[in-house]
Amino acid sequence: MRTSIATVSLSGSLTEKLTAASRAGFDGVEIFENDLLASPLSPEEIRARCADLGLSIDLYQPMRDIEAVPAEEFARNVRRARHKFELMRRLGADTVLVCSSVHPLAVDDDALAADQLHQLADLAEEFGIRVAYEALAWGRHVNTYGHAWRIVEAADHPALGTCLDSFHILSRGSDPKGIADIPGEKIFFLQLADAPLLAMDVLQWSRHYRCFPGQGGFDVAGLVRNVLGTGYDGPLSLEVFNDVFRQAEAGPTAVDAHRSLLVLQETVGVATPPAPVVPTGVAFAELVTPDAEPVAAVLGALGFARAARHRTKPVDLWQQGEARILVNTSGSARRTGTGLAAIGLESPDPAGAARRAEALLAPVLPRRRAAEDAPLDAVAAPDGTELFFCATDRPELPNWRADFVDGAGVPHGTDDNEGSHGADVTGGPHRTGVHRIDHLALTQPWHHFDEAALFHRSVLGLHAQESVDVADPYGLMRSRAVTNADGSVRIALGVGAAPTDDTVHAQHIALATSDVVGAARRFREAGGRLLPIPANYYDDLAARHEFADGELETYRELGILYDRDAHGEFRHCYTMTVGRVFFELVQRDGYRGYGAQNAPVRLAAQHTARAVIGG
User: Which ranges of 229-280 would DSSP assign to H, the alpha helix?
Assistant: First the structure.
């Protein structure tokens, strides 16, 4: 289906918005009146600009407070409409959006509303324009789509139809099944927006918190199915008022917007992009750093062994069990400092995963590699993290491990005497029992949080859990986890209260162990520094839970935090931060969460630790 976006959904000048929409792949735009009024371009120049960009102008909007008003007021409205229709003819737009009136003089008289809309449609028809009448959720007398349709039906004019808006319908709890009663040819336009489920004034909800389909709590797909069932053949168009989007760069926002419509079309069965290929595990996490020594010290204390080095790049492979950390000291690290730059995802079909990602507009990353290096497909997540689709130790597919050689220069997996891993990678001299990466936590730019959740869900096929707000000493953090079915891939997406505070709102790698107490002791004995946790936390823990003799004292000594849910228990502790990365040791005993109950304590402790170090 054709796709369109309202210019109000994007930031910048009208020219910037049109360029962003075109580059993202939209077929058309809705021109929002304020954007046109603020543009130095004439309507003819805007029309030509859209044509050059391959964009149709699908709608001009909004025309407000037209119907059900006294005769003198309506005469003024007709005069205003004539001027707008002349402008639309210059612009090349053939459909205008008329919102249900909120005018204080508007009366509750459907017959009058129908008569005045009929007169408006008569005038519009002279200009070759159609009028799409929309029920605002806060309309003075008309605030449901069913009511708007009854007025359109009563007006009975070929140039008058209705506009359906998913926000106005679903925010009021209206049942979209009634859309089936509207003939498809009388649905002149369809506007789509999602929104988080909030208990607030509907006007403020609409003006500030709309988001793209799949990013909120509405069943937008169900509504679209009902609309398509009528035979509607117009565009799927996004109209999203959102404070974040209006401040973010237009280009990435437009890509996010178009991706949401591609996923929506897949959901309702009118498009078939390549099927999602759900990752089955974490092959590696890659850190970039200008100085390998601090990272190596932490990894060594955690029990990792430096197992191999890339044959052509300054990248070391550290491993313990199936947990693999790449440490990259290339030139880019000198500019960015120590951080989590890439994730290798085990995939049953790496090429298929890459095709899916590209079809859903994920940026495919060029990769400089030597002729003998394994070809790996990689895309960029919204926060810039590189995602590699991997097949580790599968002889029928390219193996990234073959790019690494052990201390003797033997490629991994080529020496039968050392098994598939080459060097001894069970761990260093202070093994902590880490057996795999439990989860990864990625801090998102403040304007990419919703985009990131949709990206990981749609591109990677992961399940997005409910968003959680976590108290930080300087505000609130939002976090949302995405995971595969068996939990072998878990990624926690977060956005912090203080985005400039890289130490606290850093990325982190959680490492799974079956004995967190033993792992913490061995880490500390090897010279590692654990994050100190305030004594008050353990006093509260004693009040909330019962522990075996000495258990709580052990947790207090080592800075281990504790939580439980209906499925089991969770024990975890944190290392001090290196650059923008820290590590977490976790012991899950049936527990399915991420310790959100303890996050405020951890955040406060990290703030304190940073202040002490800084002092």
Answer: 250-268
